[in-house]
Specification:
The chain is α/β, with parallel strands linked by helices. About 40% of the residues lie in helices and about 15% in strands. The protein contains ten helices and eight strands. An eight-stranded mixed β-sheet has the order 3-2-1-4-5-6-7-8, with helices on both faces. The longest helix is centred in the middle third of the chain and has 31 residues.
């Protein structure tokens, strides 16, 4: 018996890197998989059906069920086709793993509007479009009286949680995904849908160039940056045992798993009236002295 026997998942960006690892791991645990990948370069240009079909073929060759899909996750109609392909091929959908992404790294002072829009589009809009169509399917089934155990697994990043030098667009998109996840968790619970997110650290096309030393293959021993290290938590979140876990951000690196704690309300100074401008300097500095130090920005 597999953790995900009888379940159906979509993995976006499933042709390479983390997405490939997730798709193969889900299939090994009994999940039927739609491997979606536009097949483009790391900056989002170009396209090919080969990466997605290669992964789907590996799954089928080992006795699993899989189809490939080359639609653009950030295209509204394309996202509908991704979800529709799962339902047409396997009869229903249970899990969406939003993993597709691109990079257009640039220091903020040099960033262009086209680079900004491209990154926000694929990451944040892409997460919205695919999940939004999936939720239509789950809501309709729930309204028809079916018991739903659906899962959304989003992909954020330490760049979105802590910030990362040279990655303002990527960090902003990933921070948006973190906020999206907690809103989805609250709003979709009534339909039997959980939403969680990952902040993974692993060797992929997007990280090898940015963190080349960190991502280098070790001479021997445990390969902490192997993308396969991230997939077990994806499989567990996709299964039925995770039904009581939602709205959480999991940091995963090698064998380390933790839950990242987001913004919290700080203890206020309340003077019971409007502040005068010359009072604010001492008050702000007192609040800062009492607050936890922020996590350092990556790259500083």
């Amino acid at each position: 018996m597999g953790t995900c026997d009888g379940r159906v998942a979509i993995v976006t960006g499933g042709g390479r890197g983390l997405g490939r690892s997730h798709a193969l791991a889900l299939a090994r645990e009994g999940c039927a998989v739609v491997v979606n990948d536009l097949g483009g370069s790391t900056d989002g240009t170009g396209g090919s059906t080969v990466p997605a079909e290669d992964v789907a073929a590996v799954i089928r060759a080992t006795g699993g069920q899989a189809i490939s899909n080359g639609d653009d996750v950030a295209d509204w109609d394309g996202a509908a086709r991704i979800v529709g392909s799962a339902i047409d091929a396997f009869g229903h959908l249970d899990v969406v793993v939003n993993n597709a992404g691109i990079l257009r790294d640039r220091m903020f002072v040099s960033a262009t509007i086209d680079e900004w829009d491209a990154v926000i589009r694929v990451h944040l809009r892409g997460h919205f479009c695919v999940s939004r169509h999936a939720v239509n399917h789950w809501r309709d089934r729930a309204k028809a009286g079916e018991t739903i155990a659906a899962r959304i697994v989003n992909t954020s990043s330490g760049a979105g949680l802590m910030g990362s030098v040279g990655q303002s667009a990527y960090g902003a998109a990933k921070a948006g995904i973190a906020a999206l996840t907690i809103v989805q968790a609250v709003e979709l619970a009534r339909y039997g849908v959980t939403a969680n997110a990952l902040a993974p650290s692993a060797r992929t096309r997007l990280t090898e160039g940015v963190f080349s030393d960190m991502m280098a293959l070790p001479a021997d021993g445990f390969d902490a940056m192997d993308p396969d290290n991230i997939s077990p938590i994806v499989v567990w979140l996709a299964g039925l045992d995770s039904s009581d876990v939602t709205g959480r951000m999991f940091e995963v690196e090698g064998g380390a798993l933790s839950i990242c704690d987001g913004w919290q309300h700080g203890a206020p100074i309340d003077i019971g009236r409007r502040w005068e401008v010359d009072e604010l300097g001492p008050a702000v500095r007192k609040l800062i002295s009492q607050a936890p130090a922020p996590a350092p920005v990556y790259g500083v």
